Amino acid sequence: MSRPKLLFLQVMVAVVVLVFWHVFSTVPLGTGSDGKPYYLLPQFFFSTPLKVIERVFLMFWEGTVYKHLMITLTEAVLAFVIGATAGVLIGFWFARKPLVAAVFDPYVKMMNALPRVVLAPIFALWFGLGIWSKVWLGVTLVFFIVFFNVYQGVREVSPVVLSNARMLGMNERQLLRHVYWPAALSWVFSSLHTSVGFAVVGAVVGEYLGSSAGLGYLIHQAEGVFDVTGVFAGMVILMIFVMVIDFCVTLIEKPLLVWRPTETRTVQ
């Protein structure tokens, strides 16, 4: 499928969703028992797309969102960088040291099973209500995703490729650079695309539970006064925010994976 056609279909999905949302929130389906119009999506609970778009535009036009966006961006980027770096390094280490992996395997699984929301109050107690409690919450979300992908990616290296590389005289350092790292790189970037959203989730959840600034704070504030338009506006900004970061990861990914063969396309 060509890129323009794919982009068109992606845009159409958003258009269809927005049209249905607008119609079912503004066009009454009938009259209720109290004589009032009945809507499938009442505006008190769902607002309307036009109101949400207007609020998003107003927040950027007035400049009220930039401070909060910058704080959330700082927290998410720090969580992403720290969590991804630790996940890559420890994932490689565990994959190359089977004894270490076997010893720590139950502890890694136990830590991964902990609900992150439970950790948020603990991090707030340890690091205060500043950015670092949100950063470390995001790190716990990012780390395990990257760690397990890197660990599996290194272990999936073909034994035939390893045997041939050793026959050519490669030492462990050369194997790491020319065999293990390229083999795991696809797994790394696959996990990074997923981790982007989780880094933002960690920052926003931390702000939601206790902060005085950030997108999570804005959403929590709007929710507290039943401002559903403000809640949806904050969610829209978050989605745009995540897509921009994910696009930046894609820009880094393409030159690093230029060696990877592309799919063969048949002319129809």
Salient structural properties:
mainly alpha; 268 residues; single chain; two-stranded antiparallel ribbon; 2 domains; 80% helix; MetI-like fold; 2 strands
Describe this structure in words.
The protein has 268 residues and is mainly alpha-helical. It has 2 domains: 1-46, no CATH class; 47-256, Orthogonal Bundle (MetI-like fold). The protein has 11 helices and 2 strands, in the order αββαααααααααα. The protein has helices at residues 3-26, 43-46, 49-62, 64-96, 98-113, 116-127, 131-155, 159-167, 172-209, 215-224, 228-256, and strands at residues 30-31, 37-38. A hairpin with a 5-residue loop joins strand 1 (30-31) and strand 2 (37-38). Helix 6 crosses helix 9 (172-209).
Largest sheet: 2 strands, antiparallel
Q: Give the count of helical stretches.
A: 11
| Adjacency order of strands in the biggest sheet | 1-2
User: What order do the helices and strands follow?
Assistant: HEEHHHHHHHHHH
| CATH topology label of the largest domain | MetI-like fold
Low-confidence runs: 263-268
Helix content: over 70%
What is the general shape?
Answer: elongated
Count of the domains: 2
The secondary structure category is mainly alpha
What does the average pLDDT come to?
A: 82
Give me the count of strands: 2
CATH H-level superfamily title of the largest domain: MetI-like
CATH architecture classification of the largest domain: Orthogonal Bundle
Per-chain topology:
Elements: H1 3-26, E1 30-31, E2 37-38, H2 43-46, H3 49-62, H4 64-96, H5 98-113, H6 116-127, H7 131-155, H8 159-167, H9 172-209, H10 215-224, H11 228-256
Antiparallel strand pairs: 1-2
